[in-house]
Specification:
Layout: E1 12-13, E2 18-20, E3 22-24, E4 30-37, E5 40-47, E6 52-58, H1 65-81, E7 88-90, H2 109-115, E8 117-121, E9 124-131, E10 134-137, E11 145-150, E12 156-162, E13 166-168, E14 176-183, E15 186-193, E16 196-204, H3 211-214, E17 218-222, E18 234-240, E19 243-249, E20 260-261, E21 263-266, E22 269-274, E23 277-284, E24 291-294, E25 297-301
Antiparallel strand pairs: 1-2, 2-4, 3-7, 4-5, 5-6, 8-9, 8-16, 9-10, 10-11, 11-12, 12-13, 14-15, 15-16, 17-18, 17-25, 18-19, 19-20, 21-22, 22-23, 23-24, 24-25
Amino acid sequence: QNADVALDYDFEFGLGWLLNPIQIAGGGLQVGHNGGLIAHRSSLLLLPDRKLGVVALTNTGETSIEEIAALALRLAYEARAGVTNDGLTNNNSTGRPHSRAALATTRDPGELEALAGVYSTVLGDFEIRRHRDGLRTERLMLGSSVELRPSVGDLFRPRFRIFDLIPYSPSELNDLAVGFGRVGEVDTLFFDEGGQNALAGWRISPSPASVAWRARIGRYEIANLGSDFAFITGLELNLTQDRLRVTVHSDDWPVPPLGAYLETLTDDEACTWSLGGSICIYAYGSGDEVELELSGYRLRLAK
């Protein structure tokens, strides 16, 4: 039903199902869906053509449930089919090279400048700037940044800069590259892992904040929690280069949130639309009596 959604790149979605291009050799189409909250994870993987599936559940959020489910499905298929499957097949390859040899390539300065901008991603919104002969993000989590070095073809290799100074490239990222593309009218950012592309975000152009929202800058805490579980502990509104930005805080998130830019639709409503979903904040009152509403939470200025 959704075969023509170009922004899906190589990871297509059916009606609630991820149509995984990385499949078990001989297993046919592989589909799945996963989910979870703070303290648990779940994954369901199916081989519809083989009438075989697995469910993996954990009572912790600190595990790779997708890897567990994939291994269980492969072992179940081998046991039923009586074969030993040494690897996976790629039924939707883009033809990109799988080797990410650290070949230093050069890019035209004008090309690098054209790629610079603000990008909205599942992790939050951040700015990518030209830095010498490559690209670098603004400071993100824990004051660190990500450097993007030109690599094979039109791709870039990510490298962390701890405290924005010390280079660090974890082995888990050896097969990961980053690319920039254009789908219709959308400038996109995508991950390339082993020749498979997945949407990572898109370029945005945040507008200047309205006068009414500028007056509401500050840190807010929940006023109506009661006995409910606190999925968030509060939020903070601030200005970044004249643009309104929200950072949602939670004690249970494993990493600090990056925040997202808000478009001020009216004097009482501001929203953001990103890969991770939409957020709308509503304002009531003024001055010290201002109150915000987000997903049913009522928030007041922290004392």
